[in-house]
Amino acid sequence: MRRTTLPDDALDATDRAILNALQDGFPISKHPFAEAGAALGVTEDDLIERIRNMREIGAITRFGPFYDAAAMGGAFCLCAMAVPQADFDATVTLVNAHAEVAHNYERTHPLNMWFVLACETEKGIGRVADEIEAETGLAVLRFPKLREFFVGFRVQA
User: Fold this and answer.
1) Which residues touch 1 (CB under 8 Å, ≥6 apart)?
2) Distance CA 94, CA 124 (A)
3) pLDDT tens column, 67-102
4) I need a labelling partner for 2 at 20 to 30 A (CA). Which of 49, 58, 89, 94 fits?
5) Overall fold of domain 13-57
6) Alpha carbons 61 and 76: distance in angstroms, whole number
7) Residue 137: left (phi > 0), alpha (psi -120 to 50), or beta?
8) pLDDT of amino acid 142
């Protein structure tokens, strides 16, 4: 996914409060958006529309649960590739076509494409990375997790 910096006014105080609040959990109920919206002082429809808009403008890349593949018996791995700029968009399409790719980001670095593979098994990581290498003709560097860190992200509301 290509990134550009959003204008300062892209998010209002309510959008920022939503970003902060929803990182701490989301209600499991019959009407979770209504419940979450009420806690933030917005309607269910407004909350849904604001989340949709933040995705469309690129403020967030996804909205959904985060599953710990390793805790469920699976495996995941951070991967990086050095992709020629002329081939970047085509390579993104190939990489993202794999259901095991959790997310994918462009970076300003010789290793300019970074993504996470989440698979049912450790062997699955190797299989999918090998498939991506075969499809793209590019090496997939694999960085397995040695230690876990939690980095909280908050925006000024």
Assistant:
1) 58, 61, 92, 103, 104, 105, 106
2) 17
3) 777 788 888 899 999 999 999 999 999 999 999 998
4) 49
5) Arc Repressor Mutant, subunit A (1.10.10)
6) 19
7) left
8) 97
